[in-house]
Amino acid sequence: MNTREWCAALVVFVVGLPTVARADSAEAEAQAIYAEGARYFDLGDYDHAVERFERAYTLSGAPGLLLDIAQAYRLEGPAACDKARAFYERFLHKSPSSARRSEVESRIVEMKACAAREPSSSRPPAATGSTATAQAPSPEPPRAAPDRPPAPSAADPPAGHGWKTLAFGSVAVAVAGAGVAGITGALALNRQSILENACSSDGGCPPSERSHLQQYQTFRTTALVGGIVGGAALALAAFSFWRASLAPAPVAGGAGVRLGGTF
Hints:
The chain has 2 domains: about 25-120 and about 150-155 and about 250-263, Serine Threonine Protein Phosphatase 5, Tetratricopeptide repeat; about 160-245. The chain has helices at about 5-40, 45-60, 65-75, 80-95, 100-115, 160-200, 210-245; strands at about 125-130, 130-135. The model is unreliable at about 120-140, about 140-155 and about 250-263 (pLDDT under 50). The protein is an all-alpha fold. The chain has 7 helices and 2 strands. It starts with a helix and ends in an 18-residue tail after the last helix.
């Protein structure tokens, strides 16, 4: 990689830092909104839980939130069965290889049956002579107590997983930058030693040493760029490890899907 390519890589790296900061802010906001929705879910206030989960999904795009929304709609009762089915299907569309696929497919069948079920209707009154006697409507079957969604699957990545991935990637870049800086720096010193022996004290060098002079300048610039990239990557790694350590733990008994790793 020549000097121009190293400089271009450094510019891309520096320009990308604001994007990382914005993503960090959106993720933190989504985490807070999700936690609020999970509390509403635990209280049985599914309307508010759905509203919070939808806002968190708008910010993060985490597929697991579609499952949260479906679970909340399912627990609202028969009137929301069709909405629950739609979000279960959207979840499978986004996460076809989910460890909870069989469970979600069963829920889809259940919600289709629920949506197709017609409410009980009263029979027409039986008439005896001129007197009509209305028959009382059949009692509605008792509703099963809402069951809590399953606990998070072990396959779900933990919160902060994205920051850890970025941190380890940054460490790799930092090591590579330090290696390039060290190797090219050593080569630059070697060329400098050759030039000091071949050139006069006033800086004049014979034409035969022109290639060594050009190599010295290239190696020196490459070593500088490698050092800058490595230092910036090391700083980003430290920041990412710090952010990963601040990732909140999953909400106990919440909607059954973690934010963070599924983004």
